TrEMBL record:
<comment type="similarity">
    <text>Belongs to the cytidylate kinase family. Type 1 subfamily.</text>
</comment>
<dbReference type="GO" id="GO:0016301">
    <property type="term" value="F:kinase activity"/>
</dbReference>
<dbReference type="InterPro" id="IPR003136">
    <property type="entry name" value="Cytidylate_kin"/>
</dbReference>
<protein>
    <recommendedName>
        <fullName>Cytidylate kinase</fullName>
        <ecNumber>2.7.4.25</ecNumber>
    </recommendedName>
</protein>
<keyword id="KW-0963">Cytoplasm</keyword>
<keyword id="KW-0808">Transferase</keyword>
<keyword id="KW-0418">Kinase</keyword>
<dbReference type="InterPro" id="IPR027417">
    <property type="entry name" value="P-loop_NTPase"/>
</dbReference>
<feature type="binding site">
    <location>
        <begin position="7"/>
        <end position="15"/>
    </location>
    <ligand>
        <name>ATP</name>
    </ligand>
</feature>
<keyword id="KW-0547">Nucleotide-binding</keyword>
<feature type="domain" description="Cytidylate kinase">
    <location>
        <begin position="3"/>
        <end position="202"/>
    </location>
</feature>
<dbReference type="InterPro" id="IPR011994">
    <property type="entry name" value="Cytidylate_kinase_dom"/>
</dbReference>
<keyword id="KW-0067">ATP-binding</keyword>
<dbReference type="Pfam" id="PF02224">
    <property type="entry name" value="Cytidylate_kin"/>
</dbReference>
Length: 210
């Protein structure tokens, strides 16, 4: 059983994916961490994010388990991840890893930008999780403040909009809602409300499949 969760930055898809994985007893992969690991490695090596060849080489040998998740979720790494994720050769290098995870015995839950369209188009259930740019910026801003990163809300909102444009406009695996994905707009929903709606949607779809 494969469950695919897609959506833009700070939409809450990762939280929902982790809870769905726990609910159904499935392994979970936050595919965004793969791109964050590549971006982090580029920054650590002092490489230009414009160096697509270097990004592809790093992606081909990246081990996300070698990185601390909190480090990968820092603000500058998110921007770097969005930049390298637009490189077709980087996406190609990480494709096999993601597909292998999705198709392991028993299935899995994956969240990212192209799970339902590229990584696992045959997924048993697909969710496209979104919210307004303002709502997502406020969520990300509060997350960053908790980590001690002092950024203005306007700066976070500008970054969210820039990443949305880059993710949706790239030529390789752009962020789009799969034709058979169920839409969950949680702009006005709390965490528990969003979870209950996500669970209901997925359960209904899996019931249809079964």
């Amino acid at each position: 059983m494969i469950i695919a969760i897609d959506g833009p930055a700070a939409s809450g898809k990762g939280t929902l994916a982790r809870r769905l994985a726990a609910h159904y007893g499935l392994p979970h992969l936050d595919t965004g961490l793969l791109y964050r690991a590549v971006g982090h490695a580029m920054l650590e090596a002092g490489l230009s994010l414009e160096d697509e060849a270097a990004a592809a080489r790093i992606a081909a040998r990246i081990d996300p388990a070698a990185y601390d998740e909190e480090t990968l979720k820092a603000g500058p790494v998110g921007e770097a991840a969005s930049r390298v994720a637009s490189v077709p050769e980087v996406r190609k290098a990480l494709l096999f890893l993601q597909k292998s995870f999705a198709h392991q015995p028993g299935g899995a839950v994956l969240d990212g930008r192209d799970i339902g369209t590229v990584i696992a188009p045959e997924a048993d259930a697909k969710l496209f999780v979104t919210a307004s740019a303002q709502a997502r910026a406020e969520r990300r801003w509060h997350e960053l403040l908790k980590r001690g990163e002092q950024l203005g809300l306007d700066d976070v909102l500008a970054d969210i909009r820039k990443r949305d444009a880059r993710d949706s406009g790239r030529s390789s695996a752009p962020l789009v809602q799969a034709a058979d994905a169920m839409l969950l707009d949680n702009t006005a929903l709390g965490v528990e409300e969003s979870w209950q709606q996500a669970l209901a949607l997925v359960a209904a779809r899996l019931g249809d499949r079964r």
